[in-house]
């Protein structure tokens, strides 16, 4: 079997990656114990879908964290969700959509559109690009992300409306977690890796936002992050 090579965007602020999707995959690999080599990519442009993360394995290049996990589950015969009921599988999928298709974009807005945050995040997300080129690329990258936000739909709202959406999502995650150790119960599953990748990139980074404030006020969410980190990142 050839070596599994995993390409991530760079880390910062104590996180292996500032991309929720890269961190999700990293968490899943730690959860399942699949041996691999991690490579930091300065940009995602070499990826098959021009987005990070992506993997190379047995002559194949696979992009998109969800399809990568589908491949790993089959190829390495690992499935942390194997004991979930059909109803739990449905709940986990609904949570994944909330996190990746909605909450994620509120985080993108706060990082890329809010001017004060962008001045901090620009040098993190483009930190692997040489300085002269970085300042040439930054405005184009920011303009592209603004277009993506509008295409998604969330970018047509006001800042207050976007933050209201994000706070509701965070509150919903808190309510689902309740007093359980992990989202589906006592044992971590894929949705915990998904939640960790996103929540860590909101609550554990020095980017101020009302969504972060809401998450920190929901005491079970920081406790979940601490629990997950102790288990897989100690």
Structural write-up:
The chain has 234 residues and is an alpha+beta fold. The chain folds into 2 domains: 5-75, 3-Layer(aba) Sandwich (Glutaredoxin), CATH 3.40.30; 86-232, Glutathione S-transferase Yfyf (Class Pi), Chain A, domain 2 (Up-down Bundle). It is built from 9 helices and 4 strands, in the order βαβββαααααααα. The protein has helices at 20-32, 65-75, 86-112, 115-125, 131-152, 159-177, 190-203, 210-217, 220-232, and strands at 5-9, 37-41, 54-57, 60-63. It is globular, with a radius of gyration of 17 Å.
What is the chains' assembly state? single chain
Q: Return the domain count.
A: 2
Question: In which order are the strands of the major sheet placed?
Answer: 2-1-3-4
| Average residue pLDDT | 95
Overall, the morphology is globular
Compute the number of helices. 9
CATH topology of the largest domain: Glutathione S-transferase Yfyf (Class Pi), Chain A, domain 2
- Topology pattern, helix = H, strand = E: EHEEEHHHHHHHH
What is the level-2 CATH architecture name of the largest domain?
Up-down Bundle
Largest β sheet strand count, sense and barrel closure = 4 strands, mixed
Radius of gyration: 17 Å
Percentage of residues in DSSP E strands: 5-15%
Output the CATH class name of the largest domain: Mainly Alpha
Structural class given helices, strands, pairing? Answer: alpha+beta
The tally of strands reads 4
Low-confidence stretches: none
Query: What distance separates the N and C termini?
Result: 29 Å
Helical content class: 55-70%
